[in-house]
Amino acid sequence: MNITINGELLNVNSKALVEVLQRFGAVAPFAVAVNGEFIPQSQHSNYVLNEGDSVELLSPIQGG
Amino acid sequence: MQTKDCLTIYGEQIKSRLLIGSALYPSPDIMTQSIVASGAEIVTVSLRRQQSAAAGDDFWQLIKNTGLKILPNTAGCHSVKEAITLAKMCREVFATDWIKLELIGDDYNLQPDPFALLEAAKILINDGFKVLPYCTDDLVLCQRLNELGCEVLMPWGAPIGTGKGLLNSYNLKTIRERLPDTTLIVDAGLGLPSHACQALEMGYDAVLLNSAIAGAGCPITMSRAFKASVEAGRFAYKAKAMPEKDVAAPSTPTMGMPFWHQQ
């Protein structure tokens, strides 16, 4: 299955969001959105991705 | 300064009237020293795609170590949907309901979109956020945001990063006059400590800035200058300035003038 994570195309075997995040190498702290919708941490373990989904994995950065 | 004279942000009492950004510094060390030297109790941060996990974590550790309150922003958002999603992500990562709501309407001057701002503020407030909208110096927009439940408003002094100061002091004064009980913070466009001082002199509760310190030749020294300027401006506002006059008035007594004015 193909998904996009932070703009990069990724071919994944699992549809589980947590496994995809692990494979990408996500390091806490971070927050996740799928197709522009925020997915709270409490839902990560049960969240199932679909073909073509776009995942955004965001972390703290400098801001003004 | 009296300890009771505090900045109020959604019921929280803050002693410093300078809010500081964490971006654009020459190095992480200068960022940290500048933030500490400013005396600020609130620092702005943001969220971006995780690129280098280690670098992002280093930055976050430095900010956490300052022990300051975190004000996340939605910088770069151009639509209500983007801003709402980013605000929710910020709330989870930074564990705060505070959000500096930025919604850009024009890429030339990064002017906030007033219509989208109202829409997004309404949704976020209904979702329990404490919204600090970065807005233009339009009185009616400020009134509408206030009516929605924004207890803090942050009109611009000038476009972000320009350092031009308070471009429309009439508008800013009018907003202060018409919203006497609302916490007002001038956000963006300041370049000099005197600009910050002017904002405080006219009764603004605080200023939020980043580039003026981060972009200075010596950010740490400039940070100290801004700290002093907001304190001076606040003292001046509390002291109530003398009335301006069009005609000269001598300050030295005219009674007992010496020989050259004797009748």
TrEMBL record, chain A:
Lineage: Bacteria, Pseudomonadati, Pseudomonadota, Gammaproteobacteria, Alteromonadales
Name of the protein in its database record: Sulfur carrier protein
InterPro entries xref list: Beta-grasp_dom_sf, Mopterin_synth/thiamin_S_b, Thi_S, ThiS/MoaD-like
Entries under Pfam families matching the protein: ThiS (PF02597)
Automatic annotation (TrEMBL), chain B:
UniProt superkingdom: Bacteria
Any Pfam family: ThiG
Residue sites binding 1-deoxy-D-xylulose 5-phosphate per the record: G161, A188, G189, N210, S211
Quaternary structure annotation from Swiss-Prot or TrEMBL: Homotetramer. Forms heterodimers with either ThiH or ThiS.
CDD domains associated with the record: ThiG
UniProt key word Transferase: yes
Active site (catalytic residues): K100
Function per UniProt: Catalyzes the rearrangement of 1-deoxy-D-xylulose 5-phosphate (DXP) to produce the thiazole phosphate moiety of thiamine. Sulfur is provided by the thiocarboxylate moiety of the carrier protein ThiS. In vitro, sulfur can be provided by H(2)S.
Name of the protein in question: Thiazole synthase
Similarity field: Belongs to the ThiG family.
EC number: 2.8.1.10
Keywords: Cytoplasm, Schiff base, Thiamine biosynthesis, Transferase
Pathway recorded for this protein: Cofactor biosynthesis; thiamine diphosphate biosynthesis
Localization per record: Cytoplasm
Catalytic activity: [ThiS sulfur-carrier protein]-C-terminal-Gly-aminoethanethioate + 2-iminoacetate + 1-deoxy-D-xylulose 5-phosphate = [ThiS sulfur-carrier protein]-C-terminal Gly-Gly + 2-[(2R,5Z)-2-carboxy-4-methylthiazol-5(2H)-ylidene]ethyl phosphate + 2 H2O + H(+)
Domain Thiazole synthase ThiG: 8-253
Enzyme type, top EC level: transferase
